[in-house]
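Bumping with the actual sequence this time:
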Amino acid sequence: MYDFVTGPLLWLTFIIFVVGLLARLVVYIRGLDWKADRVTYRVNTSYGIKGALRSIVSWLIPYKTFGWRTNPVMTVLFFVMHVGLLVTPVFLKAHNYMLYDAFGFSLPTIPDGVADLLTIGVITAVAFILLRRLALPEVRILTDWKDIVLLAITAAPFVTGFLAYHEAGNYDFWIIAHILSGEIMLIAVPFTKLSHFLLFFLSRAQLGMDFGIKRGGMKGKGFAW
């Protein structure tokens, strides 16, 4: 079982993940309306690029934007969860051992203690986000079963990985569960709201270009709008 989930199934997972994200990229760009979204982008490229970069960078910094400052607690949870989601899988020692075995190279790694803290941070953040969705009426009305399942899919690799690393019970069971849950999460990314892994940058770039060119970024020079 271990050889299968770390061999053919893992390769299939990566193929679905990469091809699925590329398809989402193409669909997003092709879905932009030429008149409404890209009417001036080709002739005012520098203003558009500045606006896109400003938008992306501002939303990657906690409390940089008004949107982050309106709900400071959720901002902390959001960044704790996303930093853990990105840093832990990529720079975990065990994952890099597998990367080296497969491709002959590895990335810098983080200490196991830091990985534990990031893992606990992700699990805690997901738990609070779930409680918020269930407790607050204004959020609960927008929540359906798919949102709950996505939170479970997001937390599962971290819960199972933590239990496997600390040998809580049957190690073989937890390590297989960890690998399978990680593969499920990667496969889910292109097909669910988890696709904001990519679409965040596209949408922020689009909005940044829009404001950088058409809504004050050029200070009204030669533009009626």
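The tokens above came from a reply further down the thread. The chain has twelve helices and no strands.
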